[in-house]
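Feature request, filed as a ticket because there's no other form

It would be nice if the structure record came with a short human-readable summary line next to the C-alpha cells. Right now we just get the raw output. Example of a typical job, pasted below so the devs can see what we mean:
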Amino acid sequence: MRVFIDGWQAEEVIMRLSFALARGTAPVASGAGAEPPRRAPSAKPEIVIADDDRHVLAVVRSALQGLGMECRPASSGPEALRMIRERCPHAAVLDVNMPGMDGFEVLAAIRHAALPLKVIMLTARQNERDVLRGFELGADDYVVKPFNPLELAVRLKRFL
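Raw output as currently delivered:
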C-alpha cells in the first residue's frame, strides 16, 4: 500500500503521528467529579474561528459554511475562549497571534479544562519550534498561512 502525503517531509509525518497517538488517552478533568460541558445537539457542526484579521475570518467562514458548518467568529483570544466554554463547539480554528491571549494560551486552556473539541492552529508561524509547541499543547492539526481555504475546510471536516 502506498500513502501519499503532499508537501510533508518524513520527519513531519512521524511527528504528527506521534502526537496524535500520544493524545489517544482520555484527558483527565480537573477537580473532583468535574465534567466538561455537554454539547447542544445541532444539525450542523459548530466551529469557533479565532483570528484578529477580519479578512481571514471571512475567508475561513465562507469555506466552512460552504461545507455545511456553523461558524462563530472571535477576534481575540479571550473572546474565543469564552465562546468555546459557553457554546462547547465541535472544533476551533485558532490563530496564534491574537490580542489578549495568543492561540497557544487558548489551546492550553482548552486542554487543561478537558473541553471535548478538535483544534486546528492556523498561523503564519511556521518555525519548527512553534509547530512542535502547538502539537505538544494538544493541537489536532497545524496549518500555515498562506493557506488554501478548501484544504483547511477538508482537514477540519475529517474530524467531525
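Something like this underneath would help us a lot:
Residues 10-22 form the longest helix (13 residues).
The domain at 44-157 is CATH 3.40.50.2300 (Rossmann fold).
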